[in-house]
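Q: What structure does this chain adopt?
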Amino acid sequence: MRQWIEAAIAEARKPNLNGQSLKDCDFSNLDMSGFDLSYTILDCANFCRANLSQAVLWAAKARNVNFGFSNLSHVNFSACNLTGSNFKGAKLSGANLAGATLDAADVRGVDFTKSNLQNVILNRIVYNATTSWPPGVRP
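A:
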């Protein structure tokens, strides 16, 4: 799958991945900005240091995904299940997480101040003093 996506990126195409199963795939260091990953199954995928800016992951199943140190600015994670995922050091400026589930996710060092966290589920979330929250939001 990675080779197919790399070829599409090289040809400046954005393949239709809507609803695909990309479970356990390695997308580390890829530029997937603007991709539509709505309804995809991304469980246990690796996006470490990837660029997903302005991507759409609406209603995706993204449990235990590694988003560590990725560019996730302006990503639409609405209604996405992100249980157990790693966001440590990721950039989430302007991300839309409305209705997302971040149960047991690692968000240490993440700046959420310009992100939409309306109705987000933050149970058992792992954060630290360097995690910044929008006004009125506290796990």
